[in-house]
Design goal:
This protein has one domain. It starts with a helix and ends in a 7-residue tail after the last helix. It is 79% helix and 0% strand. It is flat, with a radius of gyration of 15 Å. It is mainly alpha-helical. Keywords: Membrane, Transmembrane, Transmembrane helix.
């Protein structure tokens, strides 16, 4: 696979997301549920972004996985007002991924 300028920028951005997520976890003195939630989300989004750079056909699966991660983090780690935002965003990502799998979305805009 030949890396283009766009893919190099996306890989750098995904590396930054993963490093920020791990740094957030390593830097906090009391590890709270908010720290765990932000670490999980940043690492998962960075990993799926890097995955879609190398396998563009897995974009739908990456969106589905990110939706599941946001939904799981919103349900399990976060408290009341913030968890609703994560749950809603996770449901939106899941709906987009399912619609893409069913072929209800246009191929490109």
């Amino acid at each position: 696979m030949r890396l283009t300028k766009k893919s190099i920028i996306l890989l750098a951005f995904s590396a930054i997301l993963i490093v920020l997520g791990l740094w957030n976890y390593a830097d906090s003195s009391p590890v709270t549920l908010d720290v765990i939630a932000s670490t999980v989300v940043l690492v998962a989004v960075g990993w799926t972004l890097a995955l879609t750079v190398f396998e563009p056909s897995w974009t739908k699966a990456a969106i589905f996985m990110d939706g599941l991660i946001f939904l799981a983090v919103g349900i399990s780690f976060l408290l009341m007002p913030y968890n609703l935002i994560f749950i809603l965003f996770g449901i939106i990502l899941l709906a987009i991924a399912v619609a893409a799998y069913l072929g209800k979305l246009p191929l490109s805009f």
